[in-house]
Amino acid sequence: MLRRKERWTRQVSERRKFTDYEKKTVYARGNGRCAICGKPLKFDDMTIDHKIPLSRGGTNEFSNLQPACLTCNIMKGNLEVSEFFGKLKEIYKFSKRQRFHKIIVGDKIW
């Protein structure tokens, strides 16, 4: 198992700047939308997200790249897409329970 510093060094060394051709290809494959939230993206606002993060063994191949808005890309972090959606589902359920609890019980602590 790689130590933390070695993993970080490996992750940074595998990151690279994408060419305009690669950016345009990823943008076109995503139909100009964020692959995570579906929001329309301007080309200049698009970030390129790795479906399987580099830190988890992902690659820079086109099949592992998707367009994403900056907000989604930051929130997703180094999670895989399925893990990210699972976390969002947990957050939504927790939030829904908290709102329901507030409606039934109110703001008072019993």
In short:
The longest helix is centred in the C-terminal third of the chain and has 25 residues, at 81-105.
Quick tags:
His-Me finger endonuclease fold, 4 helices, 110 residues, mainly alpha, elongated
Overview of the molecule:
This protein is mostly helical and 110 residues long. The chain folds into two domains: 4-78, 3-Layer(aba) Sandwich (His-Me finger endonuclease fold); 81-110. 48% of the residues lie in helices and 7% in strands. The chain contains four helices and two strands. A two-stranded antiparallel sheet has the order 1-2. The longest helix has 25 residues, at 81-105. It starts with a helix and ends in a 5-residue tail after the last helix. The model has no long low-confidence stretch (mean pLDDT 82).
Task: Assign the CATH architecture of the largest domain.
Answer: 3-Layer(aba) Sandwich
Please give the CATH class of the largest domain: Alpha Beta
As a percent range, the share of helical residues equals 40-55%
Computed structural class: mainly alpha
Mean pLDDT: 82
User: For the record, what is the CATH homologous superfamily label of the largest domain?
Assistant: His-Me finger endonucleases
Instruction: Sketch the topology as an H/E string, one letter per element.
Output: HHEEHH
Number of domains: 2
Radius of gyration: 18 Å
- Helix count from the secondary structure assignment: 4
Q: Could you describe the largest sheet, including whether it forms a barrel? A: 2 strands, antiparallel
Number of beta strands: 2
CATH topology of the largest domain: His-Me finger endonuclease fold
